Predict the 3D structure of the following.
Amino acid sequence: MSQSRDRLEIRGLHAAVDGQEILKGVDLTIGRGEIHALMGPNGSGKSTLGYCIMGHPSYEVTAGTIELVGADGSRLDILAMEPDERARAGVFLAFQRPMAIPGVRLADFLRHAVTNVRNPQRKEGQELMPMKEFRSELKAKMGELSIDADFARRYVNEGFSGGEMKRAEILQLAMLRPRFAILDETDSGLDADAVRLASQSIARIGGAGGGSESGAMGILIITHHEQLLEHNVPHHTHVMLGGRIVESGGPELAAELHKRGYERIRSAYPDAAAAEKAMEGSAVGA
Ligand SMILES: Nc1ncnc2c1ncn2[C@@H]1O[C@H](COP(=O)(O)OP(=O)(O)OP(=O)(O)O)[C@@H](O)[C@H]1O
Ligand SMILES: [Mg+2]
């Protein structure tokens, strides 16, 4: 089904940190308008995949491809691009451990990011999106997402609670309207209401109505929370183990894993389970 629309295509991806291989051949295709859930035990390589897609310098891709494929068959090699070029091409990653940027207010950060993403040819130092236009758009989006108006005046992620980090991330998503979003769940515990609100907001923004001008987003949700998928029922669920996606299915797979955990997966894929053990034994820096 994703063959006829824009898609983010990952083929045979291998990646290493400090010379130690973490991803061992990942294949994944995300079409616009599709919601994919990525699950898997702690340390299986989910965040590493997100960092590779965004081009984090600590993660070295040693084999494989990541491409943006147009509906017309055009191919854009993401791996050849700098992280900011990837963002301008419409790829967005919400980090599991978002960085604080003391001294930079969320509104200013967003104005820069939005200007760059909407005007990919812009050079640093050139004009930003007009303040008035930006303010009214920000205000409208914050209203829609029930975010307090003062929130945008705070420094990016500095002292944010788990729920506030999540809200900042969703606000970015709403303002940037990327073509593809990788949402790596934040570590900080969210209470049940916050998870429900996040789930609803992601569904609202990611859908055809609130997505980028030309249609819905393709979304990869990395999560251990069943509730986050409540309003974003995944079209596809993938299980990562030992640096590979070992099984894919529909929403029922996510439900099974939430209920029963990963024992069935480990016994069904002994090679990947062995790789998981080896990774634990030699965790980088351990
Ligand atoms: N920057 C890094 N430095 C050192 N080791 C790293 C780094 N990034 C990842 N690793 C190692 O790679 C492995 C996979 O980590 P990753 O963060 O991708 O797992 P994950 O599937 O996202 O786990 P979780 O569910 O806990 O978020 C782990 O053994 C981790 O210690
Ligand atoms: Mg992670």
